[in-house]
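Record filed here:
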Amino acid sequence: MEMENVLFAFGLTLFAGLSTGVGSALAFFTKKTNTRFLAFSLGLSAGVMIYVSMVEIFFKAREALQADLGEVKGAWVTVIAFFTGMFAVMLIDKFVPSHENPHEMHRVEEMRGAAGQKGQENALMRMGILTALAIAIHNFPEGIATFMAAVQEPRLGVPIAVAIAVHNIPEGIAVSVPIYYATGSRRKAFRLSFLSGLAEPVGALLAYLVLMPFLSDTLFGVIFAAVAGIMVFISVDQLLPSARKYGEHHVSIYGLIVGMMIMAVSLLLFI
């Protein structure tokens, strides 16, 4: 494995993770949420991730596993790994309390209403810390997925990282609003939401230290299939529902189609 590919994949994962800070900054410096743009962007990200997962990553995983384990066993292991990736993210969702779940959409306009709120300091600080922890937990498997996809297939790394980054921007808004509501501090809200995004490069580092030394054709196939499952689940459980919560259902579907088209053309260009 070339160190250039590893550093490139890690850089992409860092870029995707720290985009939560972009969302937090938008919450502070814009006066109104552009719901149509966010809905379209979330739909586009979902389109990119679903298409690349089902058309490219899943089949590369199956090819690797069938070459190593045989046609029938390889196909079964691919499917099992695909749904295991989904269930892993599903379990993480279950462990995050709903009132602290960072995928509860918030709007920039809430920042102005939050500034005057007061309450018990300890309870508010707990709410802010739990919200930041929740987003970190959610970002961890995304970091592993982005890193492993980019390190094995660098040409897939950029669109996947951009899709994750776009997903993390409204996530950053969703984190910074309740933290600011809890603490009254813009600086603390930005810092905690920015730091929570570091869970993605931490996930990438863990994948490099734990998985890479044992990487074989079989492990590569299993990881790639699980990555496909993780990205499809993120798309259907988080991206598309989040877009609908902004009240722009048709716009998000248009974004989904455009995202699939962009990914399809980009893959054709590299044949």
Q: What stands out?
A: Residues 3-269 form one domain. The chain has one domain: 3-269. The two ends are 22 Å apart (CA to CA).
